[in-house]
Design brief:
The protein is built from 10 helices and 9 strands. By secondary structure, the protein is of the alpha/beta class. The strands form 2 sheets. Strands 7-6-5-8-9 form a 5-stranded parallel sheet. A 4-stranded parallel sheet has the order 2-1-3-4, sandwiched between helices. N-carbamoyl-L-aspartate (NCD) binds next to helix 2 and helix 6.
Length: 301
């Protein structure tokens, strides 16, 4: 049984592979089926930041496994609006549920919450920190739609504030990958993560030019510029729309390239690309259900 799911660095490759294998077993249940593995269990979802996929796929995963979900709605209608702090909310909610999914704007919030919780806490994004369950579904997608071990991948866009790429980069360092880090100068991957990658023997190539990567990679992982995390909105305007993939961009790519995006997209991928064989981002968001089923069953069953 796993305890909390806070950062991907807490997991070994063996544990990650076990989660991905479990997700593969559960995929048919995710796809219109049902099971009673978690019947009688309750999951609490606490989202202090907007979410569509993460919230709904956890909800769907829990219900397909026969469990129930409680959710505090928006922060305006909960006691947070009265000034309740996170520690108190967690102490209370851990008495109402068997696990807690938390998304919070502060980096480190999930780890702090785990110290006040008597049940497992699953980090669904802590500010610009980590997003480990997204990473697990990203790895599942790469394994299923391309190849994971030895993958050549480009992480493109906001590598400074994007939590999905922070977690994913750490995980990829366990899979003999070669990583192109493609971002505007102001939005480079933090040095601490680059140091970890280098120490693990991962080959990294840092560039501002997507053309350096596009013809050689197996996976193009695009991200949204995280507008809400910019201290100065004028600075966002200088980098908005830095990279955009269109059908024309795809002339030079490997035949079996896959294009991924954690979504939501703003204008990183032209809708023209959706109908090409390279587009896997909508399947990727579906894989959130079996992967989160695997995680929920491992923390609660
Ligand atoms: C991401 C997030 O919240 O970090 N969304 C998601 O969970 N799929 C990416 C983003 O918001 O850009």
């Amino acid at each position: 049984m796993m305890q909390h799911v806070i950062g991907i660095k807490d997991f070994s490759r063996g544990t990650i592979d076990a989660i991905l294998n479990r997700a593969a077993e559960l995929e048919s249940v995710a796809c219109g089926g049902s099971s009673n593995i978690l019947s009688g269990r309750i999951l609490a979802t606490l989202f202090y930041e907007p979410s569509t996929r993460t919230r709904l796929s956890f909800d769907s995963a829990m219900k397909r496994l026969g469990g129930n979900v409680i959710d505090f709605g928006s922060i305006e209608v909960s006691s947070i609006a009265k000034g309740e702090n996170l520690a108190d909310t967690i102490s209370v909610v851990s008495g109402y549920a068997d696990a807690i999914v938390l998304r919070h704007p502060k980096e480190g919030a999930a780890r702090m919450a785990s110290e006040f919780s008597s049940v497992p806490v699953i980090n669904a994004g802590d500010g610009a920190g980590q997003h480990p369950t997204q990473t697990l579904l990203d790895l599942y997608t790469i394994r299923k739609e391309s190849k994971l071990d030895g993958v050549k991948i480009a992480l493109v866009g906001d590598l400074k504030y994007g939590r999905t790429v922070h977690s994913l980069a750490h995980a990829l360092s366990m899979y003999n990958s070669e990583i192109y880090l493609v971002s505007p100068e102001q939005l480079k991957m933090p040095d601490s993560i680059k140091d970890d990658l280098t120490k693990s023997g991962t080959k990294i190539i840092e560039t501002t030019n997507i053309d350096d990567a596009i013809g050689v990679v197996d996976v193009l992982y695009l991200t949204r510029i995280q507008k809400e995390r910019f201290p100065d909105p004028a600075e966002y305007q200088t980098v908005a729309g830095s990279y955009k993939v269109t059908k024309d961009t795809l002339n030079e790519v490997k035949d079996d390239l896959i294009i991924m995006h954690p979504l939501p997209r703003v204008n990183e991928i032209d809708p023209d690309v959706d109908s090409t064989k390279h587009a896997v981002y909508f399947r990727q968001s579906f894989y959130g259900v079996p992967v989160r089923m695997a995680i929920l069953s491992m923390v609660m069953a």
